[in-house]
Amino acid sequence: MTVKNRLILATFAFILLSFGVVQTVFATPDTPRVVVNHTTRECDPLVYWRDECGEVTLPSGWEYHTEKTCPAEYAVTELEKLEWKKFQNDFCCQNYGGMNCPEENPASLSPSPLVTLVIETTTPTATPEPGESDPGSIVLPVTGGLSLLAGLGLGAYGLLARKHKSQ
């Protein structure tokens, strides 16, 4: 295999592998803020206070400062082990699960005059037993992935074959 072919193959492999890497999504924090405690005259100049999935709950006596630096006469300190209030939304639930998933409280669900209950009387289809997964749920992603790989492979083979004919 020539150096040029190895370079093409390495580039193709890099592009193919990079498709799997770009799917990772993380919550990004907002710009840090300054927090002060006027009673103890302390200041923490760097508190990461919020991202897409939560927000800091400040300890008693602490509040956000309107300036970007600590007041001159305040002692600089670092708040440790701050409590974090997690947001319950779809983005956070899909990426982190657990406490980031919305909790449905049956007591809070009240009937709405705009919602009409519809009961179907058709025979239910067979459902998988508990612990089993639906075999049809994996077919489309696997088929799509294999089709994509086959198309990329055949395209690369066609380019290499055409290049060898022209030489």
Polypeptide structure, described:
The chain has 167 residues and is α+β, with helices and mostly antiparallel strands. Helices cover 34% and strands 16% of the residues. The chain is built from 3 helices and 7 strands. The chain has helices spanning 3-21, 90-96, 136-166, and strands at 33-37, 42-47, 50-51, 54-57, 62-64, 75-76, 83-86. The chain has a 4-stranded mixed sheet with strand order 5-1-2-6, with no helix packed on it. It has a 3-stranded antiparallel sheet with strand order 3-4-7, with no helix packed on it. It is elongated and about 80 Å long. The model is unreliable at 105-118 (pLDDT under 50).
Q: Can you describe this structure in just a few lines?
A:
This protein is α+β, with helices and mostly antiparallel strands and 167 residues long.
What's the Cα radius of gyration?
Answer: 28 Å
Biggest β-sheet description: 4 strands, mixed
Oligomer: single chain
Walk across the major sheet and give the strand order.
5-1-2-6
Give the % helix: 25-40%
Number of helices: 3
Q: Tell me the distance between the termini.
A: 15 Å
Q: What is the helix/strand order?
A: HEEEEEEEHH
Beta-strand segment tally: 7
Task: Give the integer mean of the pLDDT values.
Answer: 74
List the helices and strands and how they pair.
Elements: H1 3-21, E1 33-37, E2 42-47, E3 50-51, E4 54-57, E5 62-64, E6 75-76, E7 83-86, H2 90-96, H3 136-166
Parallel strand pairs: 2-6
Antiparallel strand pairs: 1-2, 1-5, 3-4, 4-7
